Amino acid sequence: MTERVLVTGASGVVGGAVARGLIERGYHVRTLQRRELPKSLRGLGIEQVQGDINDEEVQQRACAEVDRVVHAAARVDVTGPWAEFERVNVRGTSAILEAANRAGVRGFVLVSSPSVSHTGKALIGADADPAEPEHARSHYSRSKAMAEQLVLNPASDKKAGMARVAVRPHLVWGPGDTQLTQRIIDRARASRLVVIGDGAALIDTTYIDNAADAIIAALERVEHPEVQGRAFVVSNGQPRTVVEMLTRIARVAGLAGPKARIPYPVARGAGHVLSAVWERTGREGDPVITPFVAEQLATAHRFDQETTRRALQWSPRVDIDEGFDRLAEFLRRGATT
Fold first, then answer.
1. Which of residues 157 and 107 earns the better pLDDT score?
2. Is 207 a catalytic residue?
3. Alpha-carbon distance 213 to 150, whole Å?
4. How many beta carbons lie within 10 A of that of residue 274, not counting itself?
5. Which residues contact residue 293 at a Cβ distance below 8 angstroms, ignoring those fewer than 6 apart?
6. CA 74 – CA 71 distance, rounded (Å)
7. Which residue of 111, 241, 272, 297 has the fewest CB atoms within a 10 Å radius of its CB?
């Protein structure tokens, strides 16, 4: 009998890639998102539920007769009022988790972020340390850390038969990505792409298809003792310097790479000022820099993937060079989501 999987946030690049990957593997897929599915997912036989994740009736319809859940819905902006991050990322996660448990769902995968345990220092050979909301560097990180604690709470596991796991893809990029890839391209096009510090910090990144494969692997093995109740950082495992990644993404779009460099203390200070202005005035869009973005661009982030690959029985199938070839082809075709 075909298993039924609910994917929340399928209008986003990660949730959408997971939904497509599940369809290709023969699952019956239902999605929950606020707006219509992107064009790339229509016509695949996906069952849609549209609505607010905090609406109880919507939750019940989404989780009814579902075997497993991938929860990718989240507010991912770099700025904005805390109340909105808390409403979507914390209360939304709690709501869908409880609805899934009531519906008898067997497995639950939270799409999380390595930033839930990042304290602002360089990470070299790091593992998936526990989520720490109190040390989070942004509203997003804090809210995702709180969500992860809800999902992986051992006390909750004892009351429910639903196996749970958190997967933390690091710096996802590739075709259709609007959070990292498109922002870099937009800044390059506007001649505003800069390097923070010397740009030599080595960072792990994750090509979108690899992130989706890892999440599906976690879904399929969520009940295994090596996976259940744990968090796993996912990346390509191919560290590159920040300046190389910025330059290559810009160049596949036919644009120049970064030409200016800003000292890290200057960038971080400017980020604090601009973030305060955005918070106080409620301005739309993102400021040029925030303290969190400055830290991400100036510090090393390299993760040990041995535990992740062994536990999930997964490894990346698209290396960085092939990923850039695919991104270049996507941009040449003028593809849209």
1. 107
2. no
3. 24
4. 18
5. 78, 271
6. 9
7. 272
Q: Which residues contact 222 (CB under 8 A, 6 or more apart)?
A: 68, 107, 108, 109, 163, 164, 165, 228
List, for residues 108-142, the tens digit of each pLDDT value: 999 999 999 877 777 888 888 889 999 888 899 99
Q: Are strands 202-203 and 240-241 parallel, antiparallel or unpaired?
A: antiparallel
Domains annotated for the chain, with CATH where assigned, are: 4-173+207-235+303-317 (3.40.50.720)
The tokens 């075997």 sit on which residue?
A: 67
Closest of 188, 171, 195, 192 to residue 264, by C-alpha: 195
Sign of CA dihedral 70, 152, 141, 144: positive
From the list 27, 140, 207, 264, the catalytic residue is: 140
pLDDT given at position 155: 67
pLDDT in tens, 264-277: 899 989 988 988 88
Query: In sequence order, what are the beta bridge partners of 263?
Result: none
